[in-house]
Amino acid sequence: MSKIHTAPGNSRVHEDRPSADRPSQWIFNLVASFYFTAVFLRSILVYRDRPELGQILGILLLWLLLGVTQPLISPRWSYYFPFYLTLQTLLVFVLLSSSDLSDFFAALLIILSMQVMLHLSPRVGGLWIGLCALIMVLLFARAYQAQAVALSLIYTAGNVLLGSYALATRRAQAARNHNQELAHEIQAANQQLQTYVAQLEGMAVARERNRLARELHDSVTQTVFSMTLTSQSAGLLLKRDPARVGAQLEHLNKLAQSALAEIQVLVSTLKPERIARGELVPALRQYLTGSRFQEELSVSLEVEGDQPLKELEEQSLFRIAQEALNNTLKHAQVPCAQVRLHLVEPFWMEIEDQGRGFDLQQTRSGGGIGLTSMDERAAEIGWGLQITTSPGAGTRIRVEKKRSAERQG
Q1: Are 152 and 139 in contact (CB under 8 A)?
Q2: 313-359 pLDDT tens trace
Q3: Helix-strand-coil percent breakdown of the chain, rounded to 5?
């Protein structure tokens, strides 16, 4: 039996050699059995006293044998069904022309019409039904004269009705196969998406690890190394010049406090705290008052407007401000900095200091982790990051919402 199949790698279901599914095949077999049994019994009743009974029953048995073996042969020989249909149709017309009482043999065409619609295109099936209707009119005209057209229409109606049912089941099966294929593709796409998400999460974790490693190297590690040198110097001075040990110990204490403060900053940046929508300003104020900025860096916060942003935007802006202020604290060598928030269109945020500045191109080419982190956070929310700085001229970091991001929001 022919099949509805999908080409590998293509979600488009096409009908190469279509067939019915199992439920519709069961219905076809039941209908075909009723029609054939009815025709066979009618043949015995009509021709029981006539010599052509044996010939008619032989043709019917041959017709039945061909019908039973067709599902077994067609899958192995692609051109068998057209041959089968032609032979079966000829046998029916031979039976129709056998006598003047043979119109009931046209019921066999109803069985063939279902098979035609299950195996061939609707256009070919329609042409076959129309041709059979014309031949029936010609054959019935000899015996039934004026009733020939009416009889032909009765049997043609059966051909059209059950043929249409077979075509509908065939198309329903094709649609089911197509839906199943789409479901498999969607499942595969979901699995692939989950893989991508896992990879992105892994990349994010690796990026944070690299950033933390660089921060530790640039800050805490160097401070601890200075503490080691200071403690060694204090040990040497203890033997040679004990009066100077006190200054070394005081310096060592400052270094320890600085290392502790730097560790606290790193820990605060790693906290998985979330900022609810509309809570950016309170979160910044709490961060500035709850950190070491009060002792080592005075930060003013200026806010204009009060329109809330998306939660992810506020979260990223908070992290950008956090990163920028940490850089100011470590490198700018100034006592104060400013944070300005513009929470009306156009939305933007600036962090500025009048410190010693730096060579932006050299820092970027050197793989500055802090700048890369700020760039990535701004890009994730569709904002643009601009850094204005030069040696001795201070630093201004401005992150602004792009026009396209506003339209999407």
Answers
A1: no
A2: 888 898 888 888 887 877 767 888 999 999 999 999 999 998 888 88
A3: 70, 10, 20
Closest to 207 (Cα-Cα) out of 319, 357, 318: 319
Cα–Cα dist 369/218, whole Å: 10
| Distance from C-alpha of 35 to C-alpha of 40, rounded to nearest angstrom | 9
Per-residue confidence band for 274, with pLDDT thresholds at 50, 70 and 90: low
Count other Cβ atoms within 10 Å, centred on residue 80. Answer: 15
Range with the poorest average pLDDT among 43-57, 151-165, 302-316, 392-406: 392-406
Token representation of residue 356: 């010693």
346 phi/psi in degrees, rounded to 5: -75, 135
Taken in order 6, 7, 8, 9, the sign of the CA dihedral is: negative
Which residues sit opposite 342 in a β-bridge? 304, 348
pLDDT in tens, 16-72: 444 445 556 788 888 899 999 999 999 999 888 888 899 999 999 999 999 999 989
Q: What are the C-alpha distances in Å from 193 to residues 11, 179, 185, 278, 316?
A: 18, 20, 12, 31, 24
DSSP 13-77: EE-SS----HHHHHHHHHHHHHHHHHHHHHHHHHHTTSTTHHHHHHHHHHHHHHHHHHHHHTTT-
Going by C-alpha positions, the residue among 305, 284, 316, 325 that lies closest to residue 382 is 316
Q: Is 146 left (phi over 0), alpha (psi -120 to 50) or beta?
A: alpha
3-state secondary structure of 381: coil
Burial class of 55 by CB neighbour count within 10 A (0 to 12, 13 to 18, 19+): middle
- State how far the Cα of 208 lies from the Cα of 394, in Å rounded to an integer: 27
Give the whole-angstrom CA distance, residue 370 versus residue 354.
19
Distance CA(21)–CA(172), nearest Å, equals 9
Q: How far apart are CA 67 and CA 85, in angstroms?
A: 10
- Rounded to 5 degrees, what are φ and ψ at 33? -65, -45
What is the Cα–Cα distance from 32 to 162, expressed in whole angstroms?
11
Which residue, among 174, 260, 233, has the nearest Cα to 2 in the 3D structure?
174
Q: What is the DSSP letter of 355?
A: S
246, with CB counted inside 10 A (0-12, 13-18, 19+), is exposed
pTM of the model: 0.49
DSSP 8-state assignment for residue 103: G
